[in-house]
């Protein structure tokens, strides 16, 4: 068990990690920017390290500053919370190179699941249900129209590296598929420096349900509660509810088992 961990996050998520670590007898290190000097997580932790100015791009998002804070305090592991550096494979790799444990998925898993095209391919190979679509490289808007016709309108055009509702366009006809391909490609290039997009069937009345997983370093994985995330604005969640009032026991079990299969595949 670790004697001391650093939490590379702030606010409520950092406070929750600190509370749990305290119950487990693990010392904690908080990091903070100028804006968070008086924050609760800084007060709660056993130690705190200042990592820069208020903008997160100059503090919480700089891997070198997190690693330096670990070395300064003797923290053996980093809990990334969510957001910030939690899904950055290069950060995970940098920690590994410095002998610091990343509390979360390994480099391969982060990379695989961060790329929507690759993750859908992995899901299919693992026998997990996926929305029908085309996962190859789409060379231009005319090919996008041909693929959309083949899938059947409406379709969703999505950035492979996307997140936060960006790089997503719904098309109900050829003209919208043409325009959607161009705009999704441009937004993906500017937001993620990766202009790859794919096309899948657009589900008109979906439920967005996420499955919580817990896995260890010995290959064991279990599914926990799910989150109902269907209340959205611009394809971004507004409210999460757990458990989902929509699922029955059989569907919950089937989704949970498929989620575990995908987790083990990556």
Explained architecture:
There is one protein chain. The protein is of the alpha/beta class and about 270 residues long. The chain folds into three domains: about 5-105, Rossmann fold (3-Layer(aba) Sandwich); about 115-200, Dna Ligase, domain 1 (2-Layer Sandwich), CATH 3.30.1490; about 210-265, no CATH class. About 40% of the residues lie in helices and about 20% in strands. It has nine helices and 13 strands. It has helices at about 10-25, 40-45, 65-75, 90-95, 105-115, 115-125, 140-150, 175-190, 250-265; strands at about 5, 25-35, 45-50, 75-80, 100, 135, 155-160, 170, 195-200, 210-215, 220-230, 230-235, 235. The strands form four sheets. It has a five-stranded parallel sheet with strand order 3-2-1-4-5. A four-stranded antiparallel sheet has the order 6-9-7-8, with helices on one face. Strand 10 (about 210-215) and strand 11 form a beta hairpin. Helix 4 (about 90-95) packs antiparallel against helix 5 (about 105-115) and helix 7 packs across helix 8. The longest helix is centred in the C-terminal third of the chain and has 19 residues, at about 175-190. The chain is globular.
